[in-house]
Design brief:
260 residues; alpha/beta; Rossmann fold; 2 domains; five-stranded parallel β-sheet; 8% strand; elongated
Length: 260
């Protein structure tokens, strides 16, 4: 009986290299050798919150309807990272944050993140969880209708939408645009990106939302992880180009190597 199953040797080596790359990248991040490139949409979040303070109107932060157990969990985590950042800014600058919730498994985490952000700023007594993080509905369009109604009544100065979104994305973007709110939208769901790009002032496209947490926090571990992913993407592109060039002259060494 073979110790290693044919066809799985290369994936095993790739996994080991991922661990090594992440370890090296995290150490480089701690030493300040890795920087995340500037993302205009994330830089604009502070402007959105500041605008809310100046106009005396609330700022909305919508993280989508994802859960921790579906295929969009990573997008939900990205949205929660931004919610924590926005909550800290809101507490520090004096903006009223409203973050309507849709999923009962995500809501407690969202509440604790917001509570922690307010506590760090010494403003925990100013947080009203029931009013600022209300549970509207676990049903897609009931939740969306609730948010649209809140937006029409409260007329927020800004709206931040980062996370997994479905058909409600266009409804949100159009509603907040109509009332004059400054918007930052971002999702990795390909079909919804065009709606955000058309109506939001700033749009985070695809993988940019996963780098958001590392960007706003400056955490070396998160920055190192993002860097390691980029290294692997570059390696994959390089292998694809070299493999294609070699195949054109009849040399299939790359394809044979990857099949082992």
């Amino acid at each position: 009986m073979a110790i290693l199953t044919p066809g799985r040797i290369v994936p095993l080596l790739a996994l080991i290299l991922v661990w090594v790359a992440v370890y090296i990248a995290i150490n480089m991040g701690k030493e300040g050798k890795i920087k995340v490139r500037r993302i205009a949409g994330l830089d604009a979040i502070e402007e959105v919150v500041g605008r809310s303070v100046e106009m005396g109107r609330p700022v909305f932060d919508i993280i989508g309807m994802g859960t921790f157990t579906d295929s969009y969990a990573t997008q939900t985590v990205a949205g929660l990272s931004i919610l924590n950042y926005v909550a800290g800014l809101s507490a520090r600058l004096g903006a009223e944050l409203i973050a309507p919730q849709a999923k009962v498994d995500v809501m407690p985490v969202a509440i604790e993140l917001v509570r922690d952000a307010y506590n760090v700023e010494g403003k925990l007594d100013e947080l009203n969880v029931d009013e600022q993080l209300p549970y509207l509905s676990g049903t897609q369009f009931a939740w969306a209708s609730g948010i649209i109604g809140m937006a029409a009544r409260r007329r927020p100065a800004g709206n931040i939408m980062i996370g997994p979104f479905w058909a409600e994305s266009m409804m949100f973007a159009e509603t907040f645009d109509r009332i004059g709110a400054m918007q930052v939208g971002g999702t990795a769901r390909t079909y919804q990106i065009p709606f955000f790009a058309a109506l939001c002032d700033y749009c985070l496209i695809g993988e940019e939302i996963f780098a958001a947490g590392a960007y706003v926090s400056g955490d070396p571990a998160q920055i190192g992880t993002i860097a390691a992913q980029d290294w692997y993407k570059l390696a994959a592109i390089a292998l694809s180009i070299v493999g294609a060039l070699l195949s054109t002259v009849g040399v299939n060494i790359i394809a044979e190597l990857l099949s082992r």
